[in-house]
């Protein structure tokens, strides 16, 4: 009964709303709700400066979540995000200590290290057929081990290069932080790849049924490998930006990005089983998570309460629209 | 085929884990400065038993073709809770133990309810509930501290008759009380069946939902037993995020080493226990060979990577390429 009435209401709405994913709409509705709740707490919550600041903070998560989304669309998951982020940041800062050439190559080198982690993940998942959740946990542990050996267990002393700081905190276009511009560029590239290229269609195809994609003559293993490499590279790039933002790398800087990046993608309506989802949803998820974090910190919620609210919100929103079909 | 060959095929993973453990432990004790003494065995078993409990918990869920990324956090939560409750007179202590175990059971049941009745994916669900459990642990113990009934703690971490480590006896008791009845019950068989082929099990009228629910709930209980023992060893409660994550990670490594298939339906908690003991021993090998402790995380990570890659050998036996895609 309720379905027919919902369909009736939807029929009268403009076309762009009818075509939109209900999950994406829910996420945007939650963003509006959060902004409203936030404005009750503090008058400056709706000021352009504050919102722009939030967007800047969101862009770090946005870059990382972009890679995560690509992997989740395949029906896989990348749990190596924490130390891919930290490795990217630390290696970029480390390269900066090796003279002018090192400074010039710092950012590419950081990203390269992330891509290397991603390639190991990709080989494990695509060619060795190890469940992605397991191999990425293992590479995460190896990356952590390597970084612990490299830094001697302390946060490294090398600091970020000027280029890294400029990317994270500078303003190339007046009024718009560079980090936001970077996220927009990466996001636009992702949308183009997903919707306009063969690679993107293949990603959706593999996420729906890898066997069918393989039988259609697609080298599914290569696509999976590339997707993991991209995810590792984007995580590391996120780390490079974060290092530029804080002007140095730290041991556990990536830990705070695993759960939010998965949550942002999944809350944005991308199916965790793969094959379904849009980048717009991920953008909504990233902003939603960032605003939630911001409100909790405005409310001076301690870390414990934040973790609890986080977990509860994710489970609750998934129960609303992320459920698998009933077995029959 | 004869009966014993079936038995051998079924227990191959467990026996392999047992073999690895024996070899590693022999190398460990023969290079240990103190040699094979009751003290060395006691210390090793106290460390190994913690991971063994968490690995048993992980096994129950993995058998149903799921995964529980919150075991480490349940372990932390119950540790923090025990540092408040398991103290005082005998009755108070007993009440505290029951409350701690009940909390673990409840955490596991919540995971199970969300995964089975809420129909969400185990990975995302348990990452999210893990965050909640860690948050509660942090509320209970913002700073490390607390205390525990030391008589009970010393009794369970000491030695029986001066030789046998009490923690190993406790582990054996838990196996006999929890794992053996479960794996032979209808619910246990249902958990295996659900992991092997959920569709076939459903069609055959196996109570897969109840079986999976029992597996998740018991996993919480076993993680709580692990948390209780952690409190007995350390006398304190501490909500350390890195430690919870490490236990989750190591439990997966132990399960894989113990011959439990991550695709579900295959393996036993006994194998996972030997996997856990072997993993701990391998990690400690560095110390007897005088390596810098800084190398330990890398060493454990590489072992984990090798352990999970071993499963890839099954690919050589695949005749039809379509079987790559499960």
From TrEMBL, chain A:
The chain crosses the membrane at residues 23-43, 55-75, 81-98, 105-128, 134-154, 166-194, 223-244, 256-273, 279-296, 308-326. It comes from the Bacteria. It holds the Pfam family BPD_transp_2. InterPro entries: ABC_transp_permease. Keywords: Cell membrane, Membrane, Transmembrane, Transmembrane helix. One of its GO terms (cellular component) is plasma membrane. GO terms for molecular function: transmembrane transporter activity. This is Monosaccharide ABC transporter membrane protein, CUT2 family. It comes from Mesorhizobium muleiense.
UniProtKB/TrEMBL annotation, chain B:
Pfam families: BPD_transp_2. The keyword Phosphoprotein does not apply. It is a multi-pass membrane protein. The chain crosses the membrane at residues 12-29, 49-67, 74-91, 97-116, 123-140, 160-182, 213-234, 246-263, 270-289, 295-316. Keywords: Cell membrane, Membrane, Transmembrane, Transmembrane helix. InterPro entries: ABC_transp_permease. It is found in: Cell membrane. One of its GO terms (molecular function) is transmembrane transporter activity. GO terms for cellular component: plasma membrane. This is Monosaccharide ABC transporter membrane protein, CUT2 family. It comes from Mesorhizobium muleiense. The lineage of its organism: Bacteria, Pseudomonadati, Pseudomonadota, Alphaproteobacteria, Hyphomicrobiales.
């Amino acid at each position: 009964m309720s379905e027919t009435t919902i369909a009736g209401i939807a029929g009268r709405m403009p076309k762009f709303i009818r075509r939109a994913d209900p999950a994406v709409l829910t996420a945007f509705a939650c963003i509006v709700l959060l902004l409203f709740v936030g404005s009750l707490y503090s008058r400056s919550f709706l000021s352009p400066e504050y919102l722009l600041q939030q967007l800047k903070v969101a862009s770090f998560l946005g870059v990382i979540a972009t890679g995560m989304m690509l992997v989740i669309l395949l029906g896989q998951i990348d749990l190596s995000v924490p130390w891919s982020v930290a490795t990217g940041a630390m290696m970029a800062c480390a390269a900066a200590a090796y003279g002018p050439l090192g400074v010039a190559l710092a950012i590419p080198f950081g990203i390269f290290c992330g891509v290397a982690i991603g390639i190991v993940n990709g080989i494990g998942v695509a060619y060795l057929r190890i469940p992605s959740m397991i191999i990425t946990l293992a590479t995460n542990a190896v990356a952590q081990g390597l970084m612990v050996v490299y830094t001697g267990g302390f946060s490294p002393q090398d600091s970020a290069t000027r280029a890294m700081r400029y990317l994270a905190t500078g303003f190339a276009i007046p009024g718009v932080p560079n980090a936001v511009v970077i996220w927009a560029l990466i996001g636009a590239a992702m949308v183009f790849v997903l919707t306009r290229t063969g690679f993107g269609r293949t990603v959706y195809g593999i996420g729906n049924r890898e066997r069918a994609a393989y039988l259609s003559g697609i080298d599914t293993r290569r696509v999976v490998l590339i997707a993991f490499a991209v995810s590792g590279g984007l995580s590391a790039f996120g780390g490079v930006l974060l290092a530029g933002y804080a002007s140095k790398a730290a041991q556990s800087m990536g830990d705070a990005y695993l759960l939010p990046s998965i949550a942002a993608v999944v809350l944005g309506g991308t199916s965790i089983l793969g094959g379904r989802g849009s980048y717009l949803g991920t953008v909504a998820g990233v902003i939603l998570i960032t605003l939630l974090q911001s409100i909790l910190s405005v409310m001076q919620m301690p870390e414990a309460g934040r973790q609890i609210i986080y977990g509860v919100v994710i489970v609750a929103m998934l129960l609303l629209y992320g459920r698998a079909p009933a077995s029959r | 085929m004869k009966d014993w060959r079936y038995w051998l095929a079924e227990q191959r993973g467990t026996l392999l884990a047992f073999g690895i453990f024996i070899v590693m432990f022999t190398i460990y004790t023969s290079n240990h400065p103190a040699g094979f003494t009751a003290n060395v065995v006691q210390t090793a078993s106290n460390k190994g038993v913690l991971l063994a409990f968490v690995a048993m918990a992980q096994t129950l869920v993995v058998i149903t073709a799921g995964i529980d990324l919150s075991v480490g956090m349940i372990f932390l939560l119950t540790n923090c809770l025990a540092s408040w409750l398991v103290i005082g007179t005998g009755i108070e202590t007993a009440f505290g133990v029951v409350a701690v175990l009940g909390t673990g059971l409840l955490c596991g049941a919540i995971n199970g309810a969300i995964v089975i009745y809420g129909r969400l994916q185990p990975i995302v669900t348990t990452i999210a509930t893990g965050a909640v459990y860690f948050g509660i642990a942090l509320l209970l113990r913002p700073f490390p501290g607390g205390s525990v009934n030391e008589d009970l703690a010393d009794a369970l971490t000491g030695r029986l008759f001066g030789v046998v480590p009490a923690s190993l006896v406790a582990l054996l008791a838990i196996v006999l009380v929890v794992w053996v009845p479960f794996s032979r019950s209808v619910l246990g068989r249902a958990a295996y069946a659900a992991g092997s082929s959920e569709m076939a099990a459903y069609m055959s009228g196996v109570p897969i939902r109840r079986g999976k629910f029992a597996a998740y709930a018991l996993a919480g209980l076993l993680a709580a037993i692990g948390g209780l023992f952690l409190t007995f060893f350390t006398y304190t409660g501490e909500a350390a995020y890195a430690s919870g994550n490490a236990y989750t990670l190591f439990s997966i490594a132990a399960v894989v080493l113990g011959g439990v298939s991550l695709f579900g339906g295959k393996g036993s908690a006994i194998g996972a226990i030997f996997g856990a003991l072997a993993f701990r021993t391998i990690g400690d090998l560095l110390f007897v060979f005088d390596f810098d402790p800084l190398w330990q995380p890398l060493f454990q990570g590489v072992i984990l990577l090798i352990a999970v890659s071993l499963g890839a050998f099954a690919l050589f036996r695949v005749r039809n390429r379509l079987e790559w895609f499960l």
